[in-house]
Design goal:
heterodimer; A: about 70 residues; mainly alpha; B: globular
Chain lengths: ~70, ~220
Amino acid sequence: MKKILSILALIFTFIQARSQDVDMATGMRSSGKIYVVVAVIGVIFLGLVMYLFSIDRRVKKLEKKD
Amino acid sequence: MKENWWKILASVLVLYSLAGGLLIEVPALPILHESIRNLYYHVPMWFAMILLYLISVIYSIKYLASGKTNHDLIAVECVNTGVIFCFLGLASGMLWANITWGDFWPNDPKLNGSAISTLMYLAYLVLRNSVDEEQKRAKISAVYNIFAFPVMIVLLFILPRMTDSLHPGNGGNPGFGGYDLDNNMKLVFYPAVIGWILMGTWIMNIRYRLRKLENIENSI
């Protein structure tokens, strides 16, 4: 998991390394706070996915009972 | 766990698109600015909805051919889940429209088309609830569904193209694919679309299985 994450981070920084001139949120990016936002979204989404999996398991249990 | 591989794939793809959508470089365009990233979140909602409606119409046709109750149940749960994605698409689109086009609901043929098709599918659900007898309900709603799907396609994809529309790819507007959906964006956009389609199918699958259980319970 750590390996995958570091590879993903590498890809992102690689693709990010380009200049821009139209007004974009570069401040948020340079301060690194955007990663906090990404982490928060990731945590929320993973939580929802795990919840979905648990609902799935409960349905499966019901199906087995019949 | 083996038959769950596509659910894990869906989660990984969506998670990747959530992170990549915020981190990966996007073209710097006037008016859009950073809001171009909404492409990764707003558009896949509609793709998921259309695919769910497509599955629904396929199972409606299958129901008319086979008469199996389960086919009807898949059709209705597809619409139930599709409507959720439709409302998510509408809400996210309105927020995006407000900052780029200056109004939550500009008078755009694509928006009005989507409103009509939303009402059409809500009417499908109302129609189902208004018929008590099971076979009659399944048959009538299957026929309605088969008519609704092509009308939805016409409203969302054909009519907006024939007049002026604010949406890219419609009227005189070049599509996102034309010049601003560069390769970086495709790297996030396509996985997002596939991921959200699979997520929608997953939710539909759970709803269908629950409804099947309810159906068995009711018939005993």
